[in-house]
What we know:
The chain is mainly α and about 200 residues long. The chain has helices at about 5-25, 30-55, 65-85, 90-110, 115-140, 150-165, 170-190.
Amino acid sequence: MSVTFVDLLDYAGTFAFAISGIRMASEKKFDLFGAYIVGMATACGGGSMRDIFLGVSPFWMTKWIYLAITGLALVFYVFCHKFISKISSTIFLFDTIGLSLFAVVGFQKTIDAGFDYWVANVMGMCTGALGGVIRDILINEVPLIFRRDIYALACVFGGCVFAFALMMGLPNYLCQTACAISVIMIRMLAVHYHWQLPTLKDE
């Protein structure tokens, strides 16, 4: 079985998002199975919705490796949780990495399926952000995407960078790298400088 660069990004994003979900589940005192389910939902929820929208079987139903990666993330967290817990920005770090990588994967897979750039941008956002929505619902938190944080919009910006790079004729791996870096940069700058969207007020 050949492994492409996009596959590697997908696996890395799955691990990062699974850690993010498991870390938050541990804060809610979930048991190991519950933490695994939250990690799996975080890692595979967005991509599953993307595949349903694109009319194909959800990716984790055709490749067992995603279940294994989530299990590996759980084992990693069990043995390294003391170290991970000492880093206050752990959830943000893993969540941001997963967000950026999944935005790339969602965009690329949609382009490969023959859809236009604007559809790819929406699917990149869904792949990156919806797993976090499912995670937050499972642990009874208001989903991050519905708060004022710049989250899903970072994926949209990354998708625009991806599309522009493709139109400039750059190699695919450079387009993917530029997209991931741009998502991470926007997310980090938004948190550092407290960029927020205005809230809708009922007056």
